[in-house]
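Kindly inspect the following:
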Amino acid sequence: MTSSRLPCLWSVALAGMLVTAARAAPPTPVVPPDEKVDGLAQRDYAVRWWQWANRVPPGVRPFQDPTGAQCGLNQSGEVWFLAGTDGTGDIRRHCRMPAGKYVFMPIINMLTHSLPGKPITCGQARATVAANNDHLGSVSITIDGQEVPHIERFRQSTPRCFDAFPVAPYLDRAKSWFPAATDGYWLMLRPLPVGVHVISVRATYDNPGSAFGDLEQVFEYQLQVEEPPEAPAPQRNANDLYT
């Protein structure tokens, strides 16, 4: 009788192990692509991201930062922006950020806009940025070693054109750079726990013969999430005791 019960006992034990493993799996920090954050759709954050990146001139933009030293540049609000690359190298960055912030970052994407003396229509801009994103090649994203699946779900495109340079004092004839459009793949992450997190991205287009049709993004962040420093206690003097 004892031997006949062993398969049943093993089944119960295995089921218990599977339940324990499922409970131990950490919840994903990835926000579904159609979920709003602080009242805005994620495609709106794609617009804000490009406006943030273009506040400084070429050569010192966040996606050209080789180390992460510019990680805190012009950050504000409930969402913290991370940058990709300009497609010219494999980048490793270290970034310190305050706890309690969402994280928004590119996987791979395109921006197109008019240039002085070379205007384009909004329709032309949107068609141009869509072309390569219709041909996503290989892609791999991990967050603390966990793979993010089904990256094709995370495509965001702007339904209308926008000004990619609303705050760009280094530009002459800023209006000559309008309109702009963007299309691509992005991730929004919920606030991460205090500590060090590693985010790795590798993505390519597979659109031979197209401008940037072989663009590759390879970068990694070592993201150090820290509690914000406590505000200093207000100074009091003896007169305060009697008021």
